[in-house]
Amino acid sequence: MKGNNWLSKIGYRPVHSLKRINRKNYFLGLVFFIGAIIFPGILMGVIGEPDSPTTLKGILYFTCGAITIAALFVSIFSVIRLHIRRFHDLGRNGWTTLFLFLPYINLLFYAWLLLAKGEEGGNKYGEPVAKDAKFFDVIFSRNIPTNM
Question: 11-39 burial, b if ≥16 CB within 10 A, otherwise e?
């Protein structure tokens, strides 16, 4: 994919260009994206079910529902990318992510992703993320400093 098309201008990177992510940023990324799904749902519970969709309460309720659905779709894509990047840090292919869809086996793989230390130094997926890298830069694959 060329660097001057519209996808690269909005920040999209193909899966094969994904780099590595360390344990800390992987965990924080999971918390961030799960929170992005749960928070609007909590607001819906606080607001309560409206009597009519035309009241302010109804508008807020259905807006939170729409935000929850949008966050769900964005988070699914983003969390899969996080898994791939974490497997890259462990020196494994991104296709290993498919094991996370197998019941019970996925628990072992999640434990491995959260607890295993990434490979020291560079591997075929790139250099490790620098210790002082900013969280959102790492999560959203923007200008990630590496330990070079």
Answer: eeeeeeebbbbbbebbebbbebbeebbee
In a domain, 144, yes or no: no
pLDDT category at 1 given cuts 50, 70, 90 is: very low
Count of domains forming the chain: 1
H or E segment to which residue 26 belongs: helix 23-47
| Structural domain contains residue 77 | yes
User: How many Cα atoms are found within 13 Å in the side-chain-facing hemisphere of 109?
Assistant: 18
Residue at 122 is within a domain? yes
Q: Tell me the per-residue pLDDT of 18-56, one tens digit each, with 9 for 90 and over.
A: 778 888 888 988 998 888 888 888 888 888 888 888 888
List 123's β-bridge partners, or say none: 126
Q: Please write the tens of the pLDDT for every residue from 125-141.
A: 888 877 777 777 777 76
- Domain range for 114: 19-139
Residue 11 lies in a domain: no
Helix, strand, coil percent content, the chain, rounded in steps of 5 = 60, 5, 35
